[in-house]
Design brief:
Largest sheet: 5 strands, mixed
Strand order of the largest sheet: 1-2-3-4-5
Distance between the termini: 52 Å
Oligomer: single chain
Structural class: alpha/beta
Shape: elongated
């Protein structure tokens, strides 16, 4: 996608046909890393992404526990035979799931939401997708959702951190 956005370069498809793809071009140029999707380059990226995701989850956990109380915030809750929600929360008169993610850019946002939509297609309770990259605000999220071909079900809501924080603040915790 980065190549296709650069007007002075041929399209990525044309590079694939003429040179065998980016790894082959990198090899011809004598670069040390030929493919960033494999090996140590990919491992380093995965570690970075994992740490960044964990930090976002910690931030959201602190917010949830601070508002609802630890007893009502469940981490890594299984929701079917193969998936886990980052959080499941019990509030007064409602319960809901939360999936936290960090989209690097708008293209990644599209991929994340589409993948999550497939994963959670049969969820019957309210589910909040919380996008934690501060560079992608609610307006950008809403603009994407407005033109999305396959619309999300009504029980799935995508929020940036600020809107998520605002929504949580309006919810009533269960009192013991």
């Amino acid at each position: 996608k980065e190549i296709d956005r650069f007007p002075q370069l041929p399209t990525s498809r044309q590079l694939q046909r003429r040179f065998g793809g980016i790894p082959m071009i990198r090899k011809k140029l004598g670069l040390s890393i030929l493919d960033f999707t494999k090996g140590s380059a990919r491992s380093e990226t995965a570690v970075f992404i994992g740490k960044r995701g964990l930090e976002a989850e910690k931030r959201i956990k602190a917010l949830l526990v601070g508002h609802f109380g630890e007893m009502f915030v469940h981490e890594q809750k299984p929701f079917n035979d193969y998936g886990r929600l980052d959080f499941f929360v019990y509030a007064m008169d409602k319960k809901f799931g939360i999936d936290v993610f960090y989209a690097k850019d708008l293209d990644t946002l599209v991929g994340c939401i589409n993948n999550k939509q497939r994963l959670y297609k049969d969820i019957e309770f309210e589910l909040l997708f919380v996008q934690s990259n501060p560079e992608i605000n609610q307006e950008k999220i809403d603009n994407f959702l407005a033109v999305k071909k396959k619309q999300l079900p009504k029980n799935i809501i995508v929020l940036d951190f600020a809107k998520f924080q605002e929504l949580i603040g309006k919810m009533t915790p269960i009192k013991i």
